[in-house]
Design goal:
mainly alpha, 6 helices, Ribosomal Protein S8, Chain: A, domain 1, KRR1 small subunit processome component second KH domain-containing protein, 200 residues
């Protein structure tokens, strides 16, 4: 029987001992299901005649107890302000500000002039900012210094005249025909021209 924090039980001495242990654990915020499981295992082991004399520690479960007393700390800690019994100062009203600057005693026409002047000053500042932003597009970027090109070595230069001669020789050669001397070709061409003149 349970009444508040007091428990009363009836039974043999051994049973009362186990009940006392279960009750004390539940008072310490440990769930009774763990103790009930161990009691059920012990009851099954007591039936076996061979295991009565042996130790039952290997059969009993070991439950890990978690410490729930440690409270989780928040990641962001906010420092509390010191308590002061006096309330904070009230912000100044528009009339108080005008009294401090002396605008309260000015006429309406003077107030309007002052406001217009302030507006003109703000407009002038805005114009200068816009012009500066527009002029940024016309400012040339800084150029990087030019690196001097390395001079090519003179040994690796191509001989142009030698290539021209090779090309001329290749043109003069005909496939399957014996090589013709350039001197004989020029002489033959000169003889043909003379024959044409005589005919005319």
């Amino acid at each position: 029987m349970v009444q508040g924090n007091t428990v009363s039980a009836l039974g043999p001495y051994r049973g009362l001992k186990e009940v006392r242990k279960v009750v004390l654990d539940t008072m310490k915020n440990i769930h009774p299901i763990y103790n009930i499981k161990t009691l059920m295992i012990k009851q099954e082991l007591a039936k076996d005649a061979e295991l009565r004399t042996q130790s039952w520690e290997r059969f009993l479960p070991n439950f890990k107890r978690r410490n729930l007393t440690k409270r989780r700390e928040p990641k962001k800690k906010t420092a509390k302000k010191e308590y002061t019994p006096f309330p904070p100062q009230q912000p100044e009203s528009q009339v108080d500000k005008e009294l401090a600057t002396g605008e309260f005693f000015l006429r309406e026409s003077q107030k309007k002039r002052k406001k217009l002047e302030e507006i003109k000053v703000k407009q002038a500042e805005a114009l200068t900012k816009r012009q500066q932003e527009r002029n940024r597009a016309f400012i040339p970027p800084k150029e990087k210094p030019m690196k001097k090109a390395k001079k090519a070595p003179t040994e690796g230069k191509i001989d142009v005249e030698a290539i021209k001669e090779k090309v001329k020789k290749a043109k003069n050669k005909k496939l399957g025909a014996p090589p013709v001397n350039p001197e004989s070709q020029t002489a033959a061409a000169g003889g043909k021209k003379r024959n044409k003149k005589h005919k005319g």
